[in-house]
């Protein structure tokens, strides 16, 4: 009878990570060898700025093997397990919304400047995270931005974006 | 002894005391609110203190550091959520005590023994820095390289259940440290034509991203927006009862200082070790361990606070940080033109005294805030995350921008925040990446110097690894790697089990 818990190696996280680390390391190795070859400053490895990146890429390649071995071990352990581990609930869209809002804020900063952009950013996040009273959202966003502007910008002489 | 006397001058400096007090207050709030960490607060502070004098910056940061590590115990006791990783062990006995209505007692024990631990660690720093410096003066480039490598391998092994994942994180840190102009020949590396990357990845935006923005993303991703807090009612705790654990706490402090001085280890490891020692030493605890034994709180809090002084020893004498917070403090030093390392005590004795002075004054604030303010903090700890998180996100933006006044750093902060979040959600610790990023430049230059020096020698292997210090460091690094290989781990555990049965 086929084991229900059998999972393809390709679906194991450690295997996927191993492939990613392997590709990055191979890329770094190729980049370092190519640039060392065409570097006008030095032809010797002992002084080459690309010597240490080569060493890092070798570490990375060794870790690729280690991660793939981990994936094999995890696969065997999963096959031997009686039941599947329970899936935890996560709020991935929430994380994406924060990232999206931050990117919009980043591009708004040079256009409408710190205070208006920050009020919009804060108000948006307060609403998304569950604050339903509009007066509270506006009040919190305005007071927080003003307090930060006065404390950091004026009080501590920190340059604001 | 000179160092201890030198630090006393700061007890008469009102400005220094006020800044340290402000830092301590900030540390109390930041450390006690789950989701805000001492690393995050220190990273944000670095950017604010750019324009300050080094002494002012150190006073504030030491206040945050000392009180921030302690205040993780508040949420550990009241919410069963450690405010800092170092307070994980405090939850084991602190929370059961709070559930019995003895939160005040638990808080008092945590405060007093955090104070004892912090003072012990700082005295150890004052006494040991000079002897370690004299050893460090004999270090050659290869020794520095191996020391940093040892730090990365230990941090990789201790911060993650999976050694490979810890090392992958460290390797990524080293990779990011390679971006920018090479320090020896001035050749741009891995910049791919982006002029903004020529100066390298600035540490502060990267750290603010990894510890600040990533934390916010993790909290939203985990959906941990609500928690219930235990109430605190005042009760009498006899000083005599509290101080009867003093002598045994010195042993936990010793463990904490030693573990803190190991690169990569830190509060959580020290607290676990001290707790397991307490379980074997204390035969008759006030209650069984795990059910509200004050002895558990004493062990955890004295050990994790003693780590502060311990972690500063390698950072100041060898420029190798012991944990994430000291890695961030190291960047404060660079920002203010200070060079930690073997010559630090000779060249910047005043800064060393300022660190000690800030630490000791921070300890006094710890005691005052812990006994007087902390019992009233239960409402602050329960600040709704829906209000707190957006404000912290805005502070991260300001912190990242303030270091070079360029928007590119804000983009870098977002990038490292997202990277840190992805790494955490896939089980990769970010602390090794922090150390890799901070130590990468030093490792690169020392490795190349060592190779260049050995190239002209007749026997290159002896020239590289022939010195006693180098051999010891090489063996430590090899041991750190080999002992974490799964096959070796299972073999040794089988061996120990068999000998235990016999």
Word description of this protein:
- The complex is a heterodimer of chains A (161) and B (502).
- Chain A is mainly alpha-helical and 161 residues long.
- Chain A folds into two domains: 9-80; 92-155, no CATH class.
- Chain A is 71% helix and 0% strand.
- Chain A contains five helices and no strands.
- In chain A, α3 (92-112) packs antiparallel against α4 (114-128).
- The model of chain A has no long low-confidence stretch (mean pLDDT 85).
- Chain B is mostly helical.
- Chain B has one domain (2-138, 189-425).
- Chain B is built from 23 helices and two strands.
- Chain B has helices at residues 2-8, 14-32, 38-48, 54-79, 88-99, 103-136, 141-158, 163-178, 203-222, 239-243, 246-261, 267-281, 294-318, 324-335, 344-347, 349-373, 378-381, 385-404, 407-425, 431-455, 460-465, 468-482, 486-501, and strands at residues 180-181, 188-189.
- In chain B, strands 1-2 form a two-stranded antiparallel ribbon.
- In chain B, a hairpin with a 6-residue loop joins β1 and β2 (188-189).
- In chain B, α3 packs antiparallel against α9 (203-222).
- Chain B is globular.
Key features of this structure:
heterodimer; A: 161 residues; 2 domains; 5 helices; 71% helix; 0% strand; flat; B: 502 residues; mainly alpha; 1% strand
SSE blueprint:
The complex is a heterodimer of chains A (161) and B (502).
Chain A: H1 13-38, H2 51-80, H3 92-112, H4 114-128, H5 134-155
Chain B: H1 2-8, H2 14-32, H3 38-48, H4 54-79, H5 88-99, H6 103-136, H7 141-158, H8 163-178, E1 180-181, E2 188-189, H9 203-222, H10 239-243, H11 246-261, H12 267-281, H13 294-318, H14 324-335, H15 344-347, H16 349-373, H17 378-381, H18 385-404, H19 407-425, H20 431-455, H21 460-465, H22 468-482, H23 486-501
Antiparallel strand pairs in B: 1-2
């Amino acid at each position: 009878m086929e084991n229900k818990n059998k999972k393809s190696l390709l679906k194991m996280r450690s295997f996927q990570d191993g492939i990613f680390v392997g590709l990055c390391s191979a890329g770094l190795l190729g980049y370092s060898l190519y640039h060392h070859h065409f570097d006008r400053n030095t032809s010797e490895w002992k002084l080459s700025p690309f010597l240490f990146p080569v060493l890092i890429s070798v570490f990375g390649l060794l870790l690729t093997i280690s991660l793939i071995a981990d994936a094999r071990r995890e696969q065997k352990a999963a096959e031997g397990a009686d039941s599947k581990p329970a899936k935890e609930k996560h709020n991935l869209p929430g994380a994406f919304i924060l990232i999206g809002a931050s990117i919009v804020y980043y591009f708004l900063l040079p256009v409408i400047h710190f205070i208006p952009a920050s009020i919009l950013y804060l108000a948006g996040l307060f609403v998304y995270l569950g604050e339903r009273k509009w007066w509270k959202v506006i009040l919190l966003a305005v007071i927080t931005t003003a307090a930060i502007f006065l404390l950091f910008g004026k009080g501590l002489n920190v340059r604001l974006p | 002894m000179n160092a201890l006397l030198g630090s006393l001058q700061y007890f008469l400096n009102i400005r220094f005391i006020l800044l340290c007090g402000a830092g301590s207050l900030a540390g109390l709030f930041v450390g006690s609110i789950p989701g805000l960490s001492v690393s995050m607060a220190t990273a944000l502070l670095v950017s604010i203190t750019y324009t300050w004098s080094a002494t002012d910056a150190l006073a504030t940061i030491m206040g945050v550091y000392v009180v921030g590590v302690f205040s993780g115990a508040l949420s550990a006791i009241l919410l069963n959520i450690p405010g800092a990783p170092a307070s994980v062990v405090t939850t084991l006995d602190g929370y059961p005590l709070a559930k019995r209505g003895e939160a005040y007692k638990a808080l008092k024990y945590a405060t007093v023994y955090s104070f004892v631990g912090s003072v012990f660690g700082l005295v150890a720093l004052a006494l040991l820095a000079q002897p370690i410096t004299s050893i460090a003066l004999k270090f050659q480039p290869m020794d520095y390289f191996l020391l940093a490598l040892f730090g990365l391998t230990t941090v990789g092994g201790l911060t993650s259940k999976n050694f490979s994942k810890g090392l992958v994180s460290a390797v990524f840190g080293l990779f990011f440290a390679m971006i920018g102009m090479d320090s020896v020949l001035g050749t741009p590396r891995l910049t791919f034509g982006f002029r903004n990357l020529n100066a390298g990845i600035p540490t502060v935006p990267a750290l603010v991203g990894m510890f600040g923005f990533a934390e916010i993303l993790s909290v939203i991703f985990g959906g941990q927006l609500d928690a219930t807090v235990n109430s605190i009612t005042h009760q009498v705790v006899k000083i005599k009862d509290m101080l009867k654990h003093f002598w045994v706490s010195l042993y936990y402090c010793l463990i904490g200082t030693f573990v803190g001085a190991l690169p990569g280890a830190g509060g959580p490891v020290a607290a676990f070790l001290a707790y397991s020692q307490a379980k074997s030493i204390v035969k008759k605890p006030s209650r069984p361990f795990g059910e509200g034994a004050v002895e558990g709180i004493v062990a955890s809090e004295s050990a994790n606070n003693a780590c502060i002084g311990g972690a500063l020893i390698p950072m100041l004498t060898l420029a190798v940080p012991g944990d994430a917070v000291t890695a961030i403090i190291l960047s404060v030093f660079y920002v203010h033109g200070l060079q930690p390392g073997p010559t630090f005590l000779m060249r910047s004795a005043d800064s060393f005294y300022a660190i000690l002075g800030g630490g000791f004054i921070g300890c006094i604030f710890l005691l005052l805030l812990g006994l007087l303010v902390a019992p009233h903090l239960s409402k602050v700890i329960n600040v709704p995350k829906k209000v707190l998180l957006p404000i912290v996100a805005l502070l991260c933006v300001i912190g990242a921008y303030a270091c070079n006044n360029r928007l590119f750093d804000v983009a870098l902060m977002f990038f490292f925040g997202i990277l840190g979040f992805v790494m955490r959600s896939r089980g990769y610790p970010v602390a090794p990446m922090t150390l890799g990023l901070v130590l990468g430049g030093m490792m690169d230059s020392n490795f190349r110097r060592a190779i260049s020096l050995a190239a002209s020698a007749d026997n290159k292997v002896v020239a590289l690894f022939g010195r006693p210090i180098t051999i010891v460091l090489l063996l430590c690094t090899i041991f750190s790697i080999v002992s974490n290989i799964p096959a070796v781990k299972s073999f040794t555990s089988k061996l120990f089990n068999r000998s235990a049965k016999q």
